[in-house]
């Protein structure tokens, strides 16, 4: 892995050494591959940047290193860790209505004991962590959005580290918002006369916005439709609407209807 180091020194040559355990005993001084990225232009000493290729080392360990710049030397340490990763996310899609619960399992992530130990962002919107089930497993509630889109889920530990360390500890995974499908929650009565004229009350769920009678159609086959009489209740927060419709004349027997809600996404259910 290549890391960047900033040091204060002169324009003299730069060598970097790592001290690693020897096979016999003690430490072995090993030269690292180094590239000078910046140097002094108007003075003999200044802050400079080096790119260093590190050695393989155990996670959780620190390696002692030394910068030799001309006749001076400076010591520093390089800490090693395994990048966190996602084991599973269920589901990886959710409705733009929001409110869906998603389970996330991670590995090599900072310890999650409570909901305060982790932050979850969807399209830069902070989501609520609702439950922590174990060391690296938790649930969060999907926030509502207006766009059907593919986005990125960012999982960030709530610990005090540098900006670069926070980037290294952050897990990013693709996530998709889908348009909600309107559903019939209840229908009363569920039968009517073949001559038509039966008034039925229907409760439906849909994208959360208030609906008017012209936003809903109920059709039977290609030619017959129920007349939507009135909207008795429509909640823009929950996405639930109660309406009344007059059934058309239909043949005897079970009939299949198509409900279409023009809520901006033309959601439909059968």
What is the CATH third-level topology name of the largest domain? Answer: Immunoglobulin-like
Number of strands: 22
User: What is the CATH architecture term of the largest domain?
Assistant: Sandwich
Outline the biggest β-sheet: 8 strands, mixed
Number of domains: 3
Quick structural gist:
The protein is mainly β.
Describe this structure as you would to a colleague.
The protein is mostly beta strands and 270 residues long. The protein folds into three domains: 2-79, Immunoglobulin-like; 85-178, Immunoglobulins (Immunoglobulin-like), CATH 2.60.40; 183-269, Immunoglobulins (Immunoglobulin-like, Sandwich). The chain is built from one helix and 22 strands. It has one helix spanning 163-169, and strands spanning 2-10, 14-21, 27-31, 33-38, 45-53, 62-69, 72-79, 85-90, 93-95, 101-107, 118-122, 125-134, 137-141, 150-157, 171-178, 183-188, 199-205, 216-220, 224-235, 240-246, 258-261, 267-269. The chain has an eight-stranded mixed beta sheet, covered by helices on one side. A seven-stranded antiparallel beta sheet has the order 16-17-20-19-18-21-22, with no helix packed on it. The protein has a four-stranded antiparallel beta sheet with strand order 3-2-6-7, with no helix packed on it. A hairpin with a 5-residue loop joins β21 (258-261) and β22 (267-269).
């Amino acid at each position: 892995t290549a890391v960047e180091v900033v040091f204060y020194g002169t324009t003299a040559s730069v060598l970097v050494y790592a001290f690693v355990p020897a096979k016999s005993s003690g430490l072995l001084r090993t030269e690292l591959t180094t590239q000078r990225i910046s140097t002094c232009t108007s003075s003999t000493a200044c802050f400079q940047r080096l790119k260093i290729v590190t050695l393989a080392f155990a996670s959780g360990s620190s390696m002692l290193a030394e910068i030799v710049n001309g006749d001076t030397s400076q010591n520093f340490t390089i800490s090693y860790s395994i990048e966190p990763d996602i084991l599973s996310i269920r589901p990886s899609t959710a409705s733009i209505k929001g409110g869906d619960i998603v389970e996330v399992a991670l590995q090599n992530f900072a310890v999650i004991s409570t909901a305060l130990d982790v932050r979850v962002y969807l399209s830069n919107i902070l989501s609520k962590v609702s439950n922590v089930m174990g060391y690296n497993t938790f649930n969060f509630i999907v926030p509502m959005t207006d766009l059907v889109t593919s986005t990125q889920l960012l999982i960030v530990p709530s610990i005090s580290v540098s900006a670069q360390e926070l980037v290294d500890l952050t897990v990013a995974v693709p996530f998709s918002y889908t348009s909600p499908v309107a559903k019939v929650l209840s229908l009363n009565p569920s039968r009517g006369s073949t001559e038509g004229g039966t008034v039925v009350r229907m409760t439906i769920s849909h994208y959360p916005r208030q609906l008017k009678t012209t936003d809903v159609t109920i059709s039977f086959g290609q030619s017959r439709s129920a007349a939507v009489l009135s909207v008795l209740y429509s909640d823009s927060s929950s996405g639930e609407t109660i309406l009344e419709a007059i059934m058309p004349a239909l043949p005897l027997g079970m009939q299949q209807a198509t409900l279409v809600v023009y809520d901006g996404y033309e959601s439909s259910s059968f």
